[in-house]
């Protein structure tokens, strides 16, 4: 667990920036992932200072929060049900959370029960579905499977 508490290193920031997708809407600060990718050598020190000095409860005051935007669907645009809300968070916040997620991935598979598969690296939720389907199909052929044999 000390992995989560240690200071964020430059290589973690660079890795997180490189893993971010392109062509995503930026948050309220207007800085896109493309900006961070283009200027990663210039912003890495600044991001490390911010990430390592901040306290989580002060994140929104440092980061600027996020903005909810309504995206129109098909139909009468006077009807609020024909809109889909999305939250635009600043890219810096997403980079920070990506770093924390990358750190968690290193030990989560050891903490989470082996039958839990969603959101764990190298485990696929579909594997569980396929296993259940296999058991159901084979139980029709061999009833002993359902009796615990």
Give an overview in words.
With 149 residues, this protein is mostly helical. It has 2 domains: 2-111, no CATH class; 115-149, no CATH class. Helix content is 52%, strand content 9%. The protein contains 7 helices and 2 strands; from the N terminus they run αααααββαα. It has helices spanning 2-5, 10-19, 33-38, 40-53, 59-63, 91-111, 125-141; strands spanning 66-72, 83-89. The chain has a two-stranded antiparallel ribbon. α2 packs across α4. The longest helix is centred in the last third of the chain and has 21 residues, at 91-111. The protein is flat and about 65 Å long. The two termini are 40 Å apart.
Question: How many strand segments?
Answer: 2
Residues in helices, as a percent range = 40-55%
Proportion of residues in β-strands: 5-15%
Anisotropy-based shape: flat
Question: Average pLDDT value?
Answer: 80
How many individual domains? 2
Order of helices and strands: HHHHHEEHH
Q: What's the N-to-C terminus distance? A: 40 Å
Order of the strands making up the biggest sheet = 1-2
Please give the largest β-sheet.
Answer: 2 strands, antiparallel
Total helical elements: 7
Class from secondary-structure proportions: mainly alpha
Computed CA radius of gyration, to the nearest angstrom: 22 Å
Uncertain parts = none
